[in-house]
Amino acid sequence: MRFFDRFRRRTTVGPEAIRARLEGAMSRRRLRGWNPPLENINALVASGGPRLLARARELVVTNGYAANACEAFAANLVGDGIKPSSLINDATLRDWVQKLWLAWTDEADADGLTDFYGLQAMVAREMFVAGECFVRLRPRRAEDGLLVPFQLQLLQSEMLPFEKTETAANGNRIRCGIEFDLIGRRVAYHFRRSHPGDSTDRLVAVPETVRVPAEDVLHIYRPLDAGQIRGLPHVAPAMVRLFLLDQYDDAELDRKKTAAMFAGFITKTAPEEPMMGEGAADLDGAAIASLEPGTMQVLLPGEDVKFSSPADVGGGYEAFQYRTLLAVSASLGLPYHLVTGDVRQANYSSLRAELVEFRRRVQQLQHGVIAHQLCRPIWARWLETAQLAGRLDLSDPVAARAVQWIPPRWDWVDPLKDIQAQILAMEAGITSRRKVVEGTGYDVEEVDRENAVDAKRAEGLGLRYRTSPGETQGARATPSRRPDAGSADDDTERTDATAGGGTTNQE
Hints:
By secondary structure, the chain is of the alpha+beta class. It has a domain at 41-61 and 109-235. Helices cover 41% and strands 13% of the residues. It has 14 helices and 16 strands. The protein has helices at residues 2-11, 15-21, 41-62, 64-77, 91-105, 116-129, 239-260, 317-332, 336-340, 348-388, 397-400, 415-427, 433-438, 444-461; strands at 83-86, 132-139, 150-155, 166-167, 173-175, 178-180, 186-192, 209-213, 217-221, 264-267, 278-281, 287-289, 304-307, 403-406, 494-495, 504-505. The protein has a 5-stranded antiparallel beta sheet, with no helix packed on it. The protein has a 3-stranded antiparallel beta sheet with strand order 3-2-9. A two-stranded antiparallel ribbon has the order 1-14. The relative contact order is 0.10. Residues 472-480 and 485-507 have low confidence and may be disordered. GO terms for molecular function: structural molecule activity. InterPro entries: Phage_lambda_portal.
C-alpha cells in the first residue's frame, strides 16, 4: 500500500508542472513581454477591419508585388471561369439548359461590364484584397428584354459597415452590418446606399443603410475560424513586410540616384579670387564651375578638387530581397515565381513541387468557397427564374439543380509526361475519361459532340487523320485527300503531305 502511495505522489502532475512543459505558455525569460489578448476573430475584425481594408487596397494599387500576387491569385482561382455541367438525365433538356445558360452569362452583370465568368474574377480579386465580396441577386422585369430576367450586382466590403452593431427594432441582433435572428441565422444585410469613399456618388453627408433580405445576398468569403462572420484580406499576413520592403526599395533607389550624381567640390585659400572655369551663379548666388568632356584643367595655386563618393547598395541587397520575398510568398500562400516573376533559381522539379502544393490550396477555395458560396446558389436561382419566365419546362426543379462545376484546366509543366500518365491511368481503370476531360476544364459531352462532328466532316471530305477510326498507330498525323473514283491516280502511292516527309501509305 505504501508503494502505491509513493508511486501516486511521483506520477501526480500539478498545474505548474504541466505549464512548464508547454513552452509557449511560459511567462519567464524570453516570453515575458508576449501577452496577446484572447479575443475572438469577430472582435478583431470589427475593431481593425476598416483600417486593414484601406491599407490592403492601397497596397495592391501602389505595390508591384502585391498587384502581381493579386492577379496571380485570381487567375489561378477562377481563370477563364468555373463552368457548370448539368447532370439532368434528359439529354435534350440538358442541352437546352446548357445553351440557355451560356447565352445568359453575357447578360449576368447588372453593370454590363463583363459576363458571369468575369464576375467570378472580380470576386476572386475582392477576396484577395478585402477578404470578402457581396453579390446581390437582382430580379428584373420582363420588359427589360433579358433572356432570363435575373442579374448579379457586386458590392464591395465597404458597403456593409463594420461599425453597425446594435439591436434591431424586431429584436434581432445586428453584428458588423449583418442581421441575425434569435437562433443565429442570417436574415438580412444592412448595406450603405453609396460607397463611403466615393465622393462622386455622395447622396447624403453620411450614407444611410438599406435592409436587404439574406436570400437576395451572397456573402463570399473564406472562414478561417468557427463562427467568423466577416472576411479577412488574403493579403493581410504579408501587408507589413510588403509595406516596409517597398519603403526600403525606395530608399535604395534614392541612394543609387544620389550615387549617380557625379559632383565635385573645389576648395581654395582665397575665396575672393575667381575659380577655375567659374560660370554663372545659381539661384542661391553660389558660383558654379562647369566640367566638360576631355578637359585637362590646370589648378591654380591653393586650389584642390574633391569628388563625392556616396555609399553603394552593398553585396547583400539581392540576398536580403530574395529572403524577404520568400517570406512574403509564404505568407500569401503563392509560389515565389508567381509573386515576383523570377524563375532564375527554378528548375522542373522545384516548379512542379511547389505548383502541386499550390494547386491543392486553390482547389480548396474553388470547391469550398467559389462553387459552394457563389456558383451553386446562382444556378438554383437562375433555374427557378428561367422556369417562372417560361424559358424552361422542368418537371422536377429539384432534380434539375444537380450540376457539376468544372474549374479551369491547369497548364502542365511537362505536357507529354502528364498526358501519357493519364492514358495509362485510363487503361488501368484507375480513372475515367470523363474525369480526364473535365481536368482540362471542358465538359466531356461537349467534347464528344465536337469529335463526332469533326469525324463526320473529315469523312465527308475524304480526310484521314491519326485520330480517325481505323487508323493505326503509325498512320500520318496530317491529312491526305483521297483521289476521285475512276481517276488515273487510283493505284498510285500517295506521299505524306508534310514537308520533307519521305514515308508512303497505300489504301
